[in-house]
């Protein structure tokens, strides 16, 4: 293949014209000491807090953590044993970023975004800083849309909304992770992208969770970020921030996301370790003074983003406007909130189009492990004060076979009924109070006092409701099925069913409604409430099923 001389000249001329000289300057320092995941570096006078630094000889990245007068404390994101005293350390001018995007879905990665599942490299051109400012008040909207967990005890009494932060708290081995995994599994038909962050967990436990997600088909819409107990403290510290950045990408695309942090008490311990190694002053329980800020700036990033609308010229298709928020002057007012946009559009006789990148949400389910039920310890009280409610799992209930072991006394959702469909509000409105009264009566009855018939009936119904709220792992229940079952329980239709047969009754009743009375189920699903027309049909269905029940 021959090139003409004038072609070569034109290419060279274009290159010369477009040439821009630039000086790439980087600071270079020397490692003074290294150990336990921390390096002290001399000479990086212009380094930024949180800036990535490189150790070229070891091929390892670090993060500027402590800026001191004569040196910089660097946390090492990798094998610190490869770094030795006197090694070179360079600044990069960049904050720590992780790869994000659709290519991450279905993958198991470390906190830096490197694949751990043996499925080859992750090809994505998108990345986000691991720490970004939380959305402002004007960019948010109230939490109103439910995030269904599929767990009766939670959806009925401590509901979670999209954009909410609901803490799962309890001792070791009380089912905290099981609730989070069941919630992820239940998002299969809810169009929610999930991120599970395993922070400080055992490798065997994480492998089992990944396998459970794969077996149930939940890995198809989940990103798993892993930093096990064997990983260095710096990786455990950044893991929740990295997972949040991956979820935020989808939130800012207008999608709903769920992020589980399992667990933040181990992240706090890793942060304490790093802080003590760089000699930051210890405070209560030897944690640094800013451990509250460490968790608050993470959890404040969870939000339900406001929907933004644009007014589209009446001779222009609103569907086309969804591709872009401003097209050739046709979209001439916006972005606005829906109320103002509707008012202006009505005045001008034009149409509305929602900006597709608005209205997303990031729901957080942080997990905190307590010691001997001590919810008033430092880290638990910190996270309780940041979140919008907590689900407290009680060991005594767990070992008594009540699973999930939700303590209705101190479990609360500060969003409440706003995060429930109307039908669930109707059937579960007084359930929490009823169960709290039942627990008091149960304690009283154990004294051996003779009970009047009304009290005995209340106790009998309470035992059946406790049995009804039990649920096996990996079997989240559709919210409409929950509504029908709880309706039967709260309205007394189970009062004559033996306690030990309640679970069998529930299973057979759900199957009966799906196969023989699908129109009732579809009606509740459509209306999102039990209307005056639907209630007699539901009652008739229960009356029809009861004689058929085989206990």
TrEMBL record:
Chain ranges of the ATP synthase alpha subunit C-terminal domain: 420-545
Keyword Nucleotide-binding: yes
Subcellular location: Cell membrane; Membrane
Domain ATPase F1/V1/A1 complex alpha/beta subunit nucleotide-binding: 150-308, 353-413
Keywords, alphabetical: ATP synthesis, ATP-binding, Cell membrane, CF(1), Hydrogen ion transport, Ion transport, Membrane, Nucleotide-binding, Translocase, Transport
Recorded catalytic activity of this chain's protein: ATP + H2O + 4 H(+)(in) = ADP + phosphate + 5 H(+)(out)
GO MF term list: ADP binding; ATP binding; proton-transporting ATP synthase activity, rotational mechanism
Membrane topology recorded in Swiss-Prot or TrEMBL: Peripheral membrane protein
Keyword Nucleotide-binding: yes
Site positions (Required for activity): 411
Domain ATPase F1/V1/A1 complex alpha/beta subunit N-terminal stretches: 25-93
Pfam families according to UniProt: ATP-synt_ab, ATP-synt_ab_C, ATP-synt_ab_N
UniProt-listed SUPFAM superfamilies: C-terminal domain of alpha and beta subunits of F1 ATP synthase (SSF47917), N-terminal domain of alpha and beta subunits of F1 ATP synthase (SSF50615), P-loop containing nucleoside triphosphate hydrolases (SSF52540)
Binding sites annotated in the UniProt record for ATP: 170-177
PANTHER family attached to this UniProt entry: ATP SYNTHASE SUBUNIT ALPHA, MITOCHONDRIAL
HAMAP family: ATP_synth_alpha_bact
Assembly with partners or alone: F-type ATPases have 2 components, CF(1) - the catalytic core - and CF(0) - the membrane proton channel. CF(1) has five subunits: alpha(3), beta(3), gamma(1), delta(1), epsilon(1). CF(0) has four main subunits: a(1), b(1), b'(1) and c(9-12).
Family as reported in the entry's similarity comment: Belongs to the ATPase alpha/beta chains family.
Protein name, UniProt field: ATP synthase subunit alpha
Naturally occurring in which organism (per UniProt): Telmatocola sphagniphila
């Amino acid at each position: 293949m021959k090139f003409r001389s004038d072609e070569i000249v034109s290419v060279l001329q274009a290159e010369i014209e477009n040439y821009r000289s630039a000086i790439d300057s980087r600071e270079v320092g020397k490692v003074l000491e290294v150990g336990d995941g921390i390096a002290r570096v001399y000479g990086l006078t212009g380094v930024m807090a949180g800036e990535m630094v490189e150790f070229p000889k070891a091929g390892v990245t670090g993060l500027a953590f402590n800026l001191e007068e004569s040196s910089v404390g660097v946390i090492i994101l990798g094998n610190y044993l490869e770094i030795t005293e006197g090694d070179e350390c360079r600044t990069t001018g960049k904050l720590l970023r992780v790869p994000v995007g659709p290519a991450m879905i279905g993958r198991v990665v470390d906190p830096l975004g490197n694949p751990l599942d043996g499925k080859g490299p992750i090809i994505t051109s998108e990345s986000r800083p691991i720490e970004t400012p939380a959305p402002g008040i004007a960019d948010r909207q109230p939490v109103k849309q439910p995030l269904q967990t599929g767990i009766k005890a939670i959806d009925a009494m401590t509901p979670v909304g999209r954009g909410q932060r609901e803490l799962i708290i309890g001792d070791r081995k009380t089912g905290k992770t099981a609730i989070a995994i069941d919630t992820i599994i239940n998002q299969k038909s809810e169009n929610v992208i999930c991120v599970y962050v395993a922070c400080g967990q055992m490798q065997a436990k994480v492998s089992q969770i990944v396998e459970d997600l794969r077996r149930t088909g939940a890995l198809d819409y989940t990103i798993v970020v892993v930093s096990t107990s064997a990983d260095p403290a710096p990786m455990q510290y950044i893991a929740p921030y990295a997972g949040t950045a991956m979820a935020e990408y989808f939130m800012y695309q207008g999608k709903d996301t769920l992020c589980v942090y399992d667990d933040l008490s181990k992240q706090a311990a890793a942060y304490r370790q790093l802080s003590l190694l760089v000699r930051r002053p210890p405070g209560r329980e030897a944690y640094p003074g800013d451990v509250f800020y460490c968790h608050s700036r993470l959890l404040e990033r969870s939000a339900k983003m406001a929907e933004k609308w644009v007014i589209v010229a009446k001779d222009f298709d609103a569907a086309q406007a969804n591709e872009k928020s401003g097209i050739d002057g046709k979209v001439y007012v916006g972005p606005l909130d829906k109320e103002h946009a509707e008012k202006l559009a009505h005045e001008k006789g034009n149409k509305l189009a929602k900006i597709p990148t608005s209205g997303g949400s990031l729901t957080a389910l942080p997990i905190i492990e307590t010691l001997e039920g001590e919810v008033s310890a430092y880290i638990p009280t910190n996270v309780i004060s940041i979140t919008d409610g907590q689900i407290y799992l009680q060991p005594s209930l767990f070992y008594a076979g009540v699973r999930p072991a939700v303590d209705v006394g101190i479990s609360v959702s500060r969003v409440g009924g706003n995060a429930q469909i109307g039908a669930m509000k109707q059937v579960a409105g007084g359930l929490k109070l009823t169960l709290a009264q039942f627990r008091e009566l149960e304690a009283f009855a154990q004294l051996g006092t003779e009970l009047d018939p009304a009290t005995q009936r209340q106790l009998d119904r309470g035992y059946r409701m406790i049995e009804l709220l039990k649920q096996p792992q990996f079997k989240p229940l559709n919210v409409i099925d929950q509504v029908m079952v709880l309706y039967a329980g709260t309205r007394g239709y189970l009062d004559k069913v033996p306690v030990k047969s309640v679970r069998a009754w529930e299973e057979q009743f759900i199957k009966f409604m799906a196969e023989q009375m699908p129109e009732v189920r579809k009606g509740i699903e459509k209306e999102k409430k039990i209307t005056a027309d639907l209630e007699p049909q539901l009652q008739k269905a229960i009356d029809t099923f009861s004689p058929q029940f085989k206990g």
